[in-house]
Amino acid sequence: MAEYITGYSKPRFLIINSSGLIIDTIDLNLCGTDGLTENYEFYLAKHNLLNYSEVTYFYGYHINFNLSYSEYSNKTNSLAISKLINHILNNYKLIIVPRIDILNRYYNVNYTGDSITLNILNNGANSIGNKSIELNFRTSELQTQMKWLNPDDLTITIDDFVVAA
After folding, report:
1. What is the CB-side half-sphere exposure of residue 146 using CA atoms within 13 A?
2. Is the C or the N end of the chain the one with fewer CB within 10 Å?
3. What is the pLDDT of residue 127?
4. Quick one: which of 130, 10, 138, 7 has its CA closest to 69?
């Protein structure tokens, strides 16, 4: 039984062309110690009434996804990030699956960063990777239902089974 919700695995991006077809799938490594962070930004209206009471109306929320590779990103992951950024620069539609172990959580997103920093880890030519990369995305549509899922309630895919010989 899992003691977490919304999944544990790495993020996936589906790249959609103007005809609505998936033209590429990009899986990124799981991030550093902060992992993949989801921040829920609620949209609401508060009204102060004449009797000095307050009424709040909730309209929905946007999710901000932060993928921080500030500590480490290996060459394969850094090249996948470069490919993703090229799709962003070509104005393709993006769908994020935040955790590929729970495929029924997915969102249309926009890239919200205005710059990207790339740095190399110490040791020059013997470096084991890059660092300082931060990616930020935001749902493009207002969400009206929470999609926090219990992994114990989901169907297990065939990839999760191990056959012992």
Report:
1. 11
2. C
3. 81
4. 130
Which has the closest alpha carbon to 144: 16, 44, 73?
44
Record the pTM: 0.84
How far CA 41 is from CA of 29, 133, 144, in Å, comes to: 25, 23, 12
Using alpha carbons, list the distances in angstroms from residue 128 to 35, 71, 114: 20, 12, 27
Q: Which two tokens stand for residue 138?
A: 């935001």
Q: What averages of pLDDT result for each successive group of 10 residues across the chain (165 residues)?
A: 83 96 95 83 94 94 93 91 97 95 92 89 81 93 90 63 50
User: What's residue 43's pLDDT?
Assistant: 94
